[in-house]
Amino acid sequence: MVAKIPVNPELLRWAVDRSGLSFSDFKEPVQAWISGDAQPTVRKLEGFARKAMVPFGYLFLASPPQESIGVPDFRTFRDEKRRTFSPNLRDTITDIQRRQAWMRDYLIDAGDEPLPFVGTLNSGQPTKQAAETIRRQLRLSADWQTKQSTWEAALTELRLAMEAVGVFVSMTNQVGLNTRRPLNQEEFRGFVLIDEYAPWVFVNTNDTKSAQMFTLAHEMVHVWVGEPGLFNLEKLEVHSSNVEQFCNRVAAEFLVPADSFTKAWARTGTVEERCTQIARTFKVSPLVAGRRALELDMISSRAFFQFYQEQMENWRVLKDQKKGNSIPVFWQQQRLRLGDRFGYAVAQAYAERKLLPSEALDLTGFKRDTFAKYANNMLRRMREASQ
């Protein structure tokens, strides 16, 4: 007779909630286990733990553990029950923390100095001055984004400018190379990990390119302030902390300067028409334009939230229409997922035999043959860039 195992129902509910899945996603009769109508075997419980992405031993604790992600949580939720940390989010943060730790040691061993701008701004400084300080240190002109033809081009311009001064940027929509583990943009849109040698920004690309622009800018300001954080920016609202409020104001000023915005808004048209045109000009989302108008007292809260709801409905429709129509370009995705600056360092360290093959595979998530192609591509780009 196969032995059955009694499990605390509270732990089973916790494991399901933590996974972000529903009961119907499990082939095991989890609800029957919770109600006491059935008990699992070891094999069944192990299968459940794998699906829920929870350590098997956790299911035998007296109560659900209090887990920490090691990053300040600045997400804003109208329903606090949604404040969870899914395995996909946890594993993504862990991956970046591992890369950051290796990169810090690599830079120190190479004799690099700490980055001079990390933590140099504070929330008491004037918004316009702070935005200009960052723009100047990135060597971007005041109208840099308006010179770009598309949102994608502007996003690339900002990402490369950040990497050029030493900030690491990773952008992806899934955990590693696992397409079955997508990142939920409603759970988080990005996070930033601070280090004086290797500050790291992560952007969840399960969002529109124009929305990613604001997330990237917001996290960028956090680097200059020297404060880490996890964000979702629901309705572009931020946490009540002074640092978060400051980072949001500076990001908005950096992307859409108040003086330029005021001139653009003065043209006649509906709220939607004005926001759409400003979004095209400054390469931000119409929602960022609308939020900027609200901050500058050009529209009412009621008008903005009505506009917000309309924009979100349009976005959901477009997202559904695009499902299955995009053709991912693998190597381009990997450049964004790992970031050029990190990729160059790993490829160089591997070529110089300062990095073991197993370490290279662990840091990048590639298999051996794929990593060899990736490293060769990165080294070729390095040679071309130096010529």
Features:
single chain; 387 residues; alpha+beta; 4 domains; four-stranded mixed beta sheet; two-stranded antiparallel sheet; 16 helices; 53% helix; globular
> Total domains, how many?
4
Distance between the termini: 72 Å
Secondary structure category: alpha+beta
Main β-sheet description: 4 strands, mixed
Question: Can you put this structure into words, describing what you see?
Answer:
The chain is of the alpha+beta class. It has four domains: 52 residues, no CATH class; 174 residues, no CATH class; 60 residues, no CATH class; 58 residues. Helix content is 53%, strand content 6%. The protein has 16 helices and six strands. The protein has a four-stranded mixed β-sheet with strand order 1-5-4-6, with helices on both faces. It has a two-stranded antiparallel ribbon with strand order 2-3. A hairpin with a 2-residue loop joins strand 2 and strand 3. Helix 5 crosses helix 8, helix 6 packs parallel to helix 7 and helix 11 runs antiparallel to helix 12. The longest helix is centred in the N-terminal third of the chain and has 23 residues. The chain is globular and about 80 Å long. It starts with 8 loop residues before the first helix and ends with a helix.
Any chance you could write out the topology, listing elements then pairs?
Blueprint (H helix, E strand, L loop, with lengths): L8 H11 L10 H6 L6 H11 L34 H23 L17 H11 L13 H14 L3 E5 L1 E2 L2 E5 L7 E4 L6 E5 L4 H17 L3 E3 L10 H14 L2 H8 L5 H12 L3 H10 L5 H22 L7 H9 L1 H12 L5 H8 L3 H19 L1
Parallel strand pairs: 1-5
Antiparallel strand pairs: 2-3, 4-5, 4-6
Helix pairs in contact: 5-8, 6-7, 7-8, 10-11, 11-12, 14-16
